[in-house]
Structure to design on (207 residues):
């Protein structure tokens, strides 16, 4: 059982004190973010994120990773400092033991943070941006009066539910067989990379 006096002594003594102030800053930051006083940007990759990735801590916002690291480092230092204090080490031996606790706490904090970050990555995985080829075979709705070999627009719905107006074209053969007009449904069957247009044909139910 740790008394309040022992707790405060350990928290304000070396090496725990190195993380006590940092932990207060982290707690203040998240409190400010909670009330909207600061913008807790949980997106975006930075050089720091790339550095953390080398230790298996990538894929999660930097602010969150640093917060987790600081919390674990502080807790481990606190536990180590109490253990050193109760062991009776003092003077130079106590300082040396403090450095050992600091190094061990930092290393174990990385290991512990990695265990927490691993499942969190799934929450921050961003879906890959849709490619033009992903729209092939999709249904669209014509938004211009007609569609030809050199003119036409349609509303295309992506897999995430968002819509976009895209340039579409219809071959002469398809236009002669079944012309497309505003409000008609069409099926996307090809994409012209050079012209950056989709080739469409009339959509028929049951086909």
């Amino acid at each position: 059982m740790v008394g309040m006096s022992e707790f405060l002594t350990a928290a304000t003594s070396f090496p725990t004190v190195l993380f006590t102030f940092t932990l207060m800053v982290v707690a203040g930051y998240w409190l400010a973010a909670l009330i909207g006083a600061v913008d807790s940007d949980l997106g975006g990759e930075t050089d720091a994120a790339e550095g953390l990735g080398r230790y298996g801590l990538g894929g999660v916002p930097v602010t969150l990773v640093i917060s987790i690291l600081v919390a674990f480092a502080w807790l481990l230092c606190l536990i180590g400092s109490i253990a050193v204090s109760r062991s009776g080490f003092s003077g130079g031996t106590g300082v040396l033991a403090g450095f050992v606790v600091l190094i061990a706490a930092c290393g174990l904090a990385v290991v512990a943070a990695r265990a927490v970050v691993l499942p969190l990555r799934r929450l921050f995985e961003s879906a890959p941006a849709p490619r033009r080829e992903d729209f092939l075979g999709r249904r669209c709705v014509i938004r211009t009066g007609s569609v030809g070999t050199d003119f036409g627009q349609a509303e295309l719905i992506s897999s995430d539910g968002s819509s976009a107006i895209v340039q579409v074209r219809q071959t002469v053969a398809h236009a002669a067989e079944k012309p497309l007009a505003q409000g008609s449904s069409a099926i996307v069957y090809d994409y012209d990379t050079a012209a950056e247009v989709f080739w469409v044909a009339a959509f028929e139910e049951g086909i």
